[in-house]
Fold this protein.
Amino acid sequence: MSLPFTKMHAQGNDFVILDNRDASLPPLDEAIIRRLTERRYGIGCDQLLLLEPSDVADAWMRIFNNDGSEAANCGNGLRCVAEILMQQMRRNAVHIALADRIVQAERHECGIAVEMGKAVVEDETEAHVDIHVGNRHRVFFEATETFPEDRNIEIITGQVADHIWVDIIERGAGRTLACGSGACATAAAVWHREQHIRPLAIEMPGGCVHISGNMEQIRLTGPVAHVFEGRVPRF
């Protein structure tokens, strides 16, 4: 017996996607997640995404970091899963359930767009702004403070008008090439700090996404890519 999977990425932020909508998969424990996501002994990825059946959306998506911990939100993962669902259902829009919300995703001329919901400012100092977008982020304008370990970290390294450059350290995954919710948090922090809401291009090490909308409904748009599909032995 073997386990089917799909490997995808968005701006280099990569995912192993397992489809359990037919309840055919064995329970996933931390050891299995670590083995599947490890880059030398497993398939390798930043996060493992598990699709489950949903009564209120086209699928329920659970998110596991490569250390086995579970995350609450993942903008790039949502866009990758949306691409799979839209291809399977031959539709240009789908709804995906997370633990605390239902996300709408649709095909866009620039890739896949998802409505990420509300961005909430939780705290700020001169050096950083704490943003909650379903998961917690700290966006640094100056990297002069110790990085906390209980949230994702975005470090703004440059800005020219409406184009922002940022480095990312994800909770449970470490330094990554991109983070969709992190791009949203970065845009929200810039909007808040500058008191000027407008579309922004967020340039991450793996590529660029576009953030639009406002603090009540933030929208993430960018391309995604299939890497490969395969099967691994069940264990």
